[in-house]
Amino acid sequence: MKTMNFIVALLLALSAPAGQAGHDPTADYPGMPGGDDASKEILVTCVDRSINRASTSPSSNYRRRGHYRSSSWSERIAGELSEAYHLTVVAQWPMTELGVECVVYDVASDASVTEVLDALRHDQRVESAQPMHRFRTMAEAYSDPYYRLQNNIRSMQIEAAQRWATGRHVRIAVIDTGVDLQHPDLKGQVVAHEDFTARDSEDFARDLHGTAVAGVIGAIAQNGTGIVGVAPNAELIALKACWPMKPGALEAECNSLTLLQALNAAIGMEPDILNMSLTGPPDPLLHRMIDRALEKGIVVVASAWKKDGSNFGFPASMDGVIAVGASNQKHDQMATAKGRRCLMAPGVDVLTTLPSGTYDFVSGSSLSAALVSGVIALLLELNPDLTAEQVARILEKSAIHHRLNAASNDASMVNACSAIGQLRKRSTCRLL
User: Fold this and answer.
1) So where are the chain's domains?
2) 209 catalytic residue (yes or no)
């Protein structure tokens, strides 16, 4: 059986930020094409104390969401900066969670993005200026449709753990592509959804990656159909910030702006868990927004890019974010990078939901992150007061327990039964 070893990175179409001349920030991420339409787009923020008071933002390919409104002050400053630096306003919106106005500009074709960013960072009207980054989801479809077995459920001892918890009353926000809301294993599982992209927005229900991730986390149990999710009674929030790289493709990409908009909305919805099955380069504004989520007690889970610990990717590299790599169940160990640990979960041939009521095997750390988000939902049902740090410690101990008590070939992966056992003051849930 052929195993597809999918390594996904992000697209970064801009040159290195000021102060890093000579270093290509895309060098650590393979498959980074140039010449993209977004290669001249930048994000600029300004502090505006009157956010949410006034009227409109310019029309663009980026969608305005919710009731956020740009003030007249912000619109004036955006116009002044546009004129001073020969920029075209693409989109503008108040980033309410950070208290700043965010403007997307297009840099003139004959101007240097690096030089424009450097100038903007020295302008007293500007709070921050950065490139528009690109992100990729972390999964790949497996071609053989006949092995319809959920090996991950057995290897992580999820079935035993579900005797004690199924994720009831736990909310998980999934920032990804769209989800097939009418899939027989997902119908009713998604309690809220929103689209922050303007690309293929009518295909929300036909998106593969988000549907696959949602199925791993929350597919309905005991309905006589398909598969069972790790946390089948959890409530899912589907926030589309990524779009397929081509029609019908599992691989998808996002950018700084769509992720920021989805994060801003997610934080306002106050989920317990935030699943980001994607990776990219360090992004200052996204870093701040994710820090905001962590400050509010949201447990953030992200896919790790390289499981050997040399590069977790962003946002998995952030302190406080639970990084998850894909295990193939053979000699994989919990990776570390700069003192941080990367948890492991099955990431090869994970059976899950796909659009139009179908199922198939999918591989990649996107699915690994979704599995761990589901396990965390089981823990939070039993103890809603757990902090992200406590959750990470429980999961790490469960992986150690798994390695010590499993066959020598087995990976050092998260074990749901052991994690539940720790909350019950036992070494495993099976002893209860």
Assistant:
1) 37-132, 136-431
2) yes
Examine the residue annotation and report whether 72 is marked as an active-site residue of this protein.
no
Q: What is the dihedral of CA 222, 228, 229, 231, to 10 degrees?
A: 30
Q: What is the DSSP letter of 63?
A: P
Domain 37-132: assigned CATH number = 3.30.70
Sheet (strand 278-279) strand order: 242-244, 252-255, 134-137, 278-279
Give, for 211, the enclosing helix (H) or strand (E). helix 208-218
Residues 144/400, Cβ–Cβ less than 8 Å: no
Among candidate residues 70, 363, 366, 373, the one labeled active-site is 366
Q: Tell whether the model's pLDDT for residue 176 goes beyond 60.
A: yes
8 Å CB contact between 375 and 414? yes
Angle at which helix 416-423 crosses helix 388-405, to 10 degrees, equals: 120
Looking at 106, 176, 272, 283, which residue is catalytic? 176
pLDDT at 70: 61
The domain over range 136-431 is classified in CATH as 3.40.50.200: yes
* HSE-CB for 43 with a 13 A CA cutoff: 24
Contacts with 393 (C-beta within 8 Å, 6 or more apart), sequence order: none
pLDDT tens digit string along 374-389? 999 999 999 999 999 9
- 169 catalytic per annotation: no
